[in-house]
Amino acid sequence: QSVLTQPPSVSAASGQKVTISCSGSSSSIGNNYVSWYQQLPGTAPKLLIYDNNKRPSGIPARFSGSKSGTSATLAITALQTGDEADYYCGTWDSSLRVVVFGGGSKLTVL
Amino acid sequence: QVQLVESGGGLVKPGGSLRLSCGASGFTFDDYYMNWIRQAPGKGLEWISCIGSSGHAIYYTDSVRGRFTISRDNARNSLSLQMNSLIAEDTAVYYCARNPVRITSLGLVNPIWNFDLWGRGTRVTVSS
After folding, report:
1. How high is the pLDDT of residue A2?
2. Out of B50, B113, B119, whose CB is closest to A44?
3. Nearest-CA residue of chain A relative to B61?
4. d(CA A99, CA A54)
5. How much is the CA Rg of chain A, to the nearest whole Å?
6. Which residues in chain B have their CB less than 8 angstroms from residue A99's CB?
7. What is the dihedral of CA B72, B46, B41, A50, to 10 degrees?
8. Beta bridge partners of B103
9. Rounded Cα distance, A13 and A20, in Å
């Protein structure tokens, strides 16, 4: 069981918007930055969002992140079939003194 | 080319040992903390260990502490993970990943806990 809670699966139609939630605690999300990762089938994860809402160079503006209290959200607009992947949130847990990840959310583009 | 390349995975019997390596290129290796993150078959990501840029700061998750040892050689731009007393639950793809640091106004080096570069992974299977 993961320290951060994500929905196992999400889906939306091509061209639409989807959001993925990530719920934690005061010692994890509540007091630390959140990052998001995209893992396409058969590949290594890739950083999508860091410091809650910043995008690394090369990541399209269709991907955005936000944080409120002990929860974070990844939003993807203008969905494409190429966005089908597993998405993970991650952060530091100040009490456990480890990096924690969510269990991952599988995105299906209908 | 900025990249991380893992090696050393394979099939090992329960109770056995294995040493993973990760070679870095294209960036200043000792500017970064380095990590091992694993993914069991069909499962999510699990962070297991981190080592600071100079090698002095070391972190482990509870499930591997005392069995695994992380180390780095900044002269050779390499990261290692010595895995002993392996169990079936250690079966996974092992990724090395870097995380950046932030230097405070007091000159302290603090890790920033996001992973901006990953290797392609090396597969470890623990089975009799």
Report:
1. 76
2. B119
3. A98
4. 19
5. 13
6. 35, 47, 50, 113
7. -90
8. B109
9. 15
Nearest to B53 by CA among B74, B30, B71, B69: B30
Q: Do A35 and B47 touch (CB under 8 A)?
A: no
What is the rounded CA–CA span in Å between residue B57 and residue B87?
26
Please name the helix (run of DSSP H) or strand (run of DSSP E) that holds residue B111, with its range, or none: strand B109-111
CB pairs under 8 A between A and B: 59
Q: What is the per-residue pLDDT for A3?
A: 86
Sort out which chain A residues have CB atoms less than 8 A from B46's CB and list them.
101
Cβ-based contacts of A91 with chain B (< 8 Å): 113
Question: DSSP of chain A, one letter per residue?
Answer: --SBB--SEEEE-TTS-EEEEEE--TTTGGGS--EEEEE-TTS--EEEEBTTTB--TT--TTEEEEEETTEEEEEE-S--GGG-SEEEEEEEETTTTEEEEB--EEEEE-
Backbone angles phi, psi at A72, to 5 degrees: -135, 160
The first and second tokens of residue A33, run together, are: 């930055």
Provide block-wise average pLDDT over 10 residues at a time, chain B (128 residues).
97 98 96 97 96 93 97 98 98 97 87 95 97
Give φ, ψ of B107 to 5 degrees.
85, 10
Residue pair B18/B10 in contact (Cβ under 8 Å)? The answer is yes
